[in-house]
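Anyone? Bumping this.
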Amino acid sequence: EVQLVESGGGLVQPGGSLRLSCAASGFTFGSYGMSWVRQAPGKGLEWVSVISDRSSWTHYADSVKGRFTISRDNSKNTVYLQMNSLRAEDTAVYYCVKHLSGSYCFDYWGQGILVTVSS
Amino acid sequence: QSALTQPASVSGSPGQSITISCTGTSSDVGYYNYVSWYQQHPGKAPKLMIYGVSNRPSGVSNRFSGSKSGNTASLTISGLQAEDEADYYCNSYTSSTTWVFGGGTKLTVL
């Protein structure tokens, strides 16, 4: 059974930093791209960032480019999202998602973790 | 990276069919056949319902179907059931090597 478990969320002040982790199990982690998707309270889904299976490339939404960094450790079956210079508008539930190979979509989602940026 | 356009809400009675549209541009929906649809119940993580415009993952009811014409994709749910009441989001891979979601559609089963 595929499982994605996020951790590292919480309350942070504007301008602060936070690192999210996502521990994966139930599939060959190093063979799949992974993304982060977020959802602000009461709002829709927003794709944030992607990393390829072997970390050869990454891409970001314009809203987080230059502030967020995605990375992964295939030996630990974990993907990370380093979030710097956080703003109030980054407040959201952050989902770790697994890509469906060759189909450019997201077939498994974590339960999500709340990040609140507030003073 | 403008969001894809979906109707804010749709409704239907049990047993009826409804269609949710998702309009993008020639740089996303119209560029690739990489449109997917997600169902989200309140307080839950989204669930993949359709991928590659019209493919259903294993375990998803055949009452759900997808299609695309030009820059507009559509999700059709036939034989509406109470459990289908949820928010639905479309998503497309883009020519900029990013992904974009629609604003979401709230489906109410009357």
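Late reply, but here is one note on the structure posted above: The first strand of chain A starts at residue 3 and ends at 7.
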